[in-house]
Amino acid sequence: MSQSSPTRLVVSTLGALAVTAGLATAPAHAGPAAPAGPAAPTGSVAAITEHLAARLAGDLADDARRAGLLTASTRPVPLSRAAGDTALGRAVRDADRAVLTAKGLPQDGTSLLTVRLAHADMAAALGRGVAPLVASSPADDEATTVTAHDRAGRRVALPADRVPARPVYLVEVDTTTALAKGVEVLRSTLSQRGLSPTAAVAPASGYWATQLTSIRLEDDKEPWHKGDAEIFAINAGFGLDGKVAVDTVQLPYLDEDGKTYYPNQLLVHFSGYKYNLADLVMMEEDGGTNYRDLALALTQALLTIVDGGAYIPLVNAIINALPDSWWTDDPDYVDSWYTLSTATSGTLRGAAGNGTMTVTPYWVSPL
User: How far is CA 244 from CA 208, 247, 315, in A?
Assistant: First the structure.
């Protein structure tokens, strides 16, 4: 998913796979050898997927094909299909465990890694027997090249703005599953710290909510190497106890930018808030999001805010809590909306100018 405001992780390469200009012998149609660049931080999602992509292109390529991982389909194939006590199976399991750690998710056996053919137009060349490349799925909207690996272990630079003639497989994180797990971590951590809204309405009564009737995110272009992103929102207000209360909501339908969606989704529930006001910050799960770090950062920032008897906007506190890395290679911030109320209605442009949504008050009646 391409977005004008959030950018994603710059694709990194491992120094051990670097080749000098004098040794770059990749076929002309593959693109020039990629120059050595700064390696992704050890243990990061980018480093893990990059390392696995290099192995799938090289020593694990035959095993991956036999396991049915490298197909002509653009649909993501779970790498967990590589089961058993084989080099491929062990490599995938190790990488999956490392990705869970990097994303601050529990080690519950969940497999997040997938691989797919990057673009449908590459299937014909694949059918003709053209040797494919394998890359770690890049996430930087402004990257000019995508670094892939060939069978000989060389790094190959591909243009980011046009579909390569040579087939490319992309190793990615299943962001849908990651977001569902991550929201659980956020809610659990915030609840343990007393930062979750607690509904106080009696069963016989009802409450006001904000209904999202339409939403659109701006779009520049959709590069060949981008898959769909997963969007979620953090809404915050003051709970009945005077502490900041934070809730999360997923927007799984927001697959494409430049397209208007009409979800009629309840976005903010005011039943657990002291005031009839709340703020909203929209985020993107791009594969590199660490939910444990996000939850701890939110906790540390928001526990210091005290209710002074009047509503205080919380967007800035949430944004300031985001790790510094999210504003360089991995800024998952999409947009924000200040002071939504129980009476807010109409079309609202986000503060960052990236999102536009239409909302209306909605009365939630009891059964």
Answer: 19, 10, 12
Half-sphere exposure in the Cβ direction for 164 (13 Å, CA): 30
Task: Please name the amino acid found at residue 132.
Answer: P
CA-CA distance, 273 to 287, in Å (whole number)? 32
Strand partners, 145: 159
**Average pLDDT estimate for 254-276:** 91
* Whole-prediction pTM: 0.81
**Is the distance from CB of 288 to CB of 136 less than 8 angstroms?**
no
Other residues' Cβ atoms within 10 Å of the Cβ of residue 84: 8
- The DSSP code sequence of 87-105 is HHHHHHHHHHHHHHHHTT-
Name the strands in the sheet holding 277-285, side by side, starting at the edge strand that comes first in the sequence.
244-251, 230-238, 277-285, 333-341
Count of alpha carbons within 13 angstroms of residue 209, beta-carbon side: 16
What is the SS3 assignment for 168?
A: strand
What is d(CA 98, CA 94) in angstroms, rounded to the nearest whole number? 6
Q: Is 306 left (phi over 0), alpha (psi -120 to 50) or beta?
A: beta
Measured between alpha carbons, how far is 110 from 89 in angstroms, rounded to an integer? 14
Taking the C-alpha atoms of residue 85 and residue 94, their distance in angstroms, rounded to an integer, is 12
What is the DSSP pairing of strand 133-136 with strand 145-149? antiparallel
Distance CA 321, CA 314 (A): 11
344: its two tokens: 């807010």
User: pLDDT tens across 54-74, in order?
Assistant: 999 999 999 999 999 999 999
Beta-carbon-side half-sphere exposure of residue 166 (alpha carbons within 13 Å): 23
Q: Are strands 346-349 and 168-173 parallel, antiparallel or unpaired?
A: unpaired
Burial readout 231-250 (b: 16 or more C-beta within 10 A, e: otherwise)? bbbbbbbbbeeebbbbbbbb
